[in-house]
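Weekly structure sync, notes
Attendees: PL (lead), two postdocs, one rotation student
Agenda item 3: pending single-chain targets
PL asked that the sequence for the first pending target be pasted directly into the notes so everyone works from the same version. It is reproduced below exactly as submitted, 139 residues in total.
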Amino acid sequence: MNIDSINNGIVIDHIRAGQAMKIYDFLDLGALDCAVAIIKNAASSKMGKKDIIKIDSELNVDLNALGYIDPSITINIIKDGVRVRKYHPELPLTITNIIRCKNPRCITSTEQELPHVFRLTDREKDEYRCIYCESKAGV
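Predicted structure, written out during the meeting:
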């Protein structure tokens, strides 16, 4: 298999095997007009198997939201063919429209246009709660 290196863009590495499409959909990568490579079940000495996403373009999104989706992710920023930054996304203080409130009495159940906003309440337990009804996010 031959997958070209990227010149300017992002490599999302150490994705749990089988989770790349969830991230692909969340970032709406299908709408991009650039090369996007998804490598599924790549061999990994640390994880056994992992997924990788290569995006041959810069994205204007908060990649820290990926820390909620998969805390093991590593994000590499590539400029002129060289990795200029590597980091693990931190859990964001708030996440919007990534998860939906399951509480049937929450205002988001009746007011469909309201965004589903959750606030980090316990970093140790990766716990988020709905800002409207305080229900715990179900992962």
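Discussion points:
- The mean pLDDT is 89.
- The radius of gyration is 17 Å.
Action: rotation student to compare against the earlier draft before next sync.
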